[in-house]
């Protein structure tokens, strides 16, 4: 839990009282590798902080799955549109490695907003961070080559990316596994 506090304190000045309220709303859960945390059709009830692990978001398709987001340690994860609207998710959320999450319910988050001085600022910052990441990814898909997208992911998470099956990386950067193999051969020659 201290990992979350350190994460926040990089951006905000937390009082002990604010932290106590925030921490009281958190529950730690562990999930094995390849565990579906949320299935399409279910409603997201939690905003989670990844203590350790890798999580992917994907749309199930008959022929192949479409991985559209990957989340790593020290970040927040949620089927956020479902969490905010209380509508069923249209995608799955799955662990790619053994994962430990600190989870807060929607009602718990509302308590943090109401009862702390810093809660609304943290919420706004987290929402803005998610928006910026989503926008960056969309622009990358429109402007960058597949090789550039692969190299960026590799430079941002070099050790963790080795734990992700290549078919998910290929889907995430918008290419086939065969095209990714060609890119990797070209890079590592």
UniProtKB/TrEMBL annotation:
Name this polypeptide is given: Crp/Fnr family transcriptional regulator
* Domain Cyclic nucleotide-binding: from-to ranges: 29-114
Spell out the Pfam families in the cross-references: cNMP_binding
């Amino acid at each position: 839990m201290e990992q979350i506090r350190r994460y926040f304190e990089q951006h905000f000045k937390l009082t002990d009282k604010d932290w106590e309220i925030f921490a009281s709303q958190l529950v730690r859960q562990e999930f094995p590798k390849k565990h579906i945390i949320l299935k399409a059709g279910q409603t997201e009830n939690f905003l989670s902080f990844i203590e350790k692990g890798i999580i992917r978001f994907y749309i199930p398709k008959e022929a192949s799955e479409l991985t559209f987001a990957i989340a790593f340690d020290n970040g927040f994860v949620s089927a956020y549109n479902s969490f905010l609207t209380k509508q069923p998710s249209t995608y799955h959320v799955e662990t790619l490695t053994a994962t430990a999450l600190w989870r807060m319910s929607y009602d718990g988050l509302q308590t943090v907003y109401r009862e702390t001085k810093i809660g609304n600022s943290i919420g706004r910052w987290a929402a803005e961070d998610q928006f910026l990441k989503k926008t960056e990814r969309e622009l990358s898909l429109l402007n960058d080559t597949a090789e550039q997208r692969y190299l960026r992911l590799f430079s941002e998470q070099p050790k963790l990316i080795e734990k992700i099956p290549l078919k998910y990386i290929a889907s995430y950067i918008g290419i086939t596994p065969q095209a990714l193999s060609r890119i990797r051969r070209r890079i590592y020659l």
